Amino acid sequence: MDLRAFVEAVACPSVGRRAAGLLLLTAVAAFVLAAASTGAAWASEGFQEAEPSRPASVQPAPLRSIEPGGDRADFAPLRSIIGDARIVALGESTLGAHEPLAFRNRLFEHLVEDLDFTAIAVESAFPESRRLAEYIAGGPGAEQEILADLRTWWHEPLEENLQLVRWMRDYNARPGKKRPVRFYAIDLSYTGPWGSRPTATPIEAALAYLSRVDVESGHKLGVAFEPWIRRLADPLAPWTDQEHDAFTATIDDLVALLERERVAYLAAASAADHEWAHRSAVVARQADRMFRVAPAAPPNGPVPRDAWRMVDARDSAMAENVLWALGQEGPEGRVLVVTHKVHAQAAATAGGPWDAYERMPASMGRHLRASLGERFAVVGMQEEDGPSTVPRPFLLDLREGEAARRRSSFDSQLVIDPSTPARPVKSRP
Questions:
Q1: All residues at 6 or more sequence positions from 150 whose CB lies less than 8 Å from its CB, including other chains
Q2: What is the pTM of this model?
Q3: Under DSSP, is residue 312 helix (H, G, I), strand (E, B) or coil?
Q4: How far is 405 from 281, CA to CA, in rounded Å?
Q5: How far apart are CA 202 and CA 204, in angstroms?
Q6: With contact defined as beta carbons under 8 Å apart, do 375 and 322 qualify?
């Protein structure tokens, strides 16, 4: 795993502002120093526990292609692995690379067309995602402009993401389809040192909803939040304990109001509007919880031993948001979740820079395995170079026999050639 991928997966993937570049460089420097201080192997794939060599008993199942479209019969081995899982997590080997994103698109087409999956959830900030979700559902807008606004879904619009958006929108326009497919983002909205400061975006989204359904309460909370929104505009500003307690209490008031007055608010606006507002407030609370346990030391030295708490808080929140998305899909819903594999794996993260921690963080996948058991399946991705007896790409079933030792991380693994950069969207007249 390269350094940029690690920083994107762990340090600050949800920064949605171009000004965050300096913060990203700070995080890079911090983790480079951490690697040097711990003797970390940056090539470690996913930073999970060291895995044994592939047992000879595991027979590779070749795939026709990683590119979407065409015949899907080669997915038959994967269907038996997925079974009746309601959530399948795909753990990307590298963020912002063509091959993982192309396979994501092909896999989602298969899951929707052949296994009745109903939604995809991606590692991007929830509060900024509504416009894209509504566009995919058939709403108005210009696709490239909407995609450009969602800067937390990578740093620039990518052709691979545009391909997914177009396929989903076209699918939803088909006559006679079983049901629409939906798009969710499951990450928090944050910036600042260690990628741990909340942004004001989810708070502002919830306040905008209140201004329509409860003007008086919306005004009172807007006044209460005004000083904190100003503070959040400076991601480097110090906070006292008293200030942070007051900020947390105001977020709690916002969440409580949306829950307490739900019935009254549903009479003034749609159920979808309330769900988005309430989830935005919850995401603000999740980001604040991560902020509260972030390391006090600036990110210019070795990784603090207690930094696992921040990583743990983020992965726990993403798992909670995945389960919320599944609930939105109803009892027949099935969701593909796409993140870096350090989050998707159903095991504690360890190895590399994680070894500096006093405790290993629990990954999103580990939380989901605890909640769903066998109705959660994980597909990891591994990039390999050099000769192979079976042409890549191919799938490995890691559930049975000697390979069961690896199941704590993945149920299946896709092995591909080394990835290449994703393709930025070319502006069109």
A1: 124, 128, 129, 131, 132, 185
A2: 0.88
A3: helix
A4: 40
A5: 5
A6: no
- Whether 389 and 334 map to the same domain: the answer is yes
114-128, 291-305, 358-372: least confidently modelled range? 291-305
The total of structural domains in the chain comes to 2
Whether residue 280 is found in the same domain as residue 333: no
Comparing CA positions, the residue from 273, 364, 288, 272 lying closest to residue 321 is: 364
CB of 100 closer than 8 Å to CB of 419: yes
Please check whether residue 424 lies inside any domain of the structure: no
How far is the C-alpha of 9 from the C-alpha of 284, rounded, in Å?
20
From 270, 293, 316, give the residue that closes a domain: 293
**DSSP per residue, 321-358:** HHHHHHHHT-TT--EEEEEEHHHHSSS-B-SGGGGGSS
Residues 149, 160: Cα–Cα separation, whole Å: 16
Amino acid in position 170: D
**Residue 385 maps to which CATH number?**
3.40.50
pLDDT at 32: 32
125 part of a folded domain? yes
Q: Which domain holds residue 68?
A: 3-187+301-416
Buried b (16+ CB within 10 A) or exposed e, 395-405: bbbbbeeebee
- Per-residue confidence (pLDDT) for residue 296, from 0 to 100: 81
Distance between CA 123 and CA 285 in Å, rounded?
A: 18
pLDDT computed for residue 19 by the predictor: 36
Q: In terms of residues, how long is the chain?
A: 429
| Sequence-ordered list of residues with C-beta below 8 angstroms from that of 202, at least 6 positions apart, any chain | 126, 127, 189, 280, 281, 283, 284, 287
Contacts with 292 (C-beta within 8 Å, 6 or more apart), sequence order: 244, 248
Question: H-helix or E-strand containing 314?
Answer: helix 308-328
Per-residue pLDDT at 129: 95
pLDDT given for residue 154 in this prediction: 81
Confidence grade of residue 56 (pLDDT, cut at 50, 70, 90): low
Three-state secondary structure call for residue 186: strand
Q: What is the dihedral of CA 213, 217, 219, 222, to 10 degrees?
A: -100
pLDDT beyond 50 at 318: yes
Say if residue 393 is exposed, middle or buried (CB neighbours under 10 Å; 0-12, 13-18, 19+): buried
Contacts 24+ apart (CB under 8 A), 165-168: 165/132, 165/135, 165/136, 167/68, 167/105, 167/108, 167/109, 168/120, 168/136
* pLDDT of amino acid 420: 96
DSSP 246: H
Q: Is a pLDDT exceeding 80 seen at residue 196? A: yes
CA distance 82 to 114: 12
- Give whole-number Cα distances, 262 to 210, 272, 314, in Å: 11, 12, 27
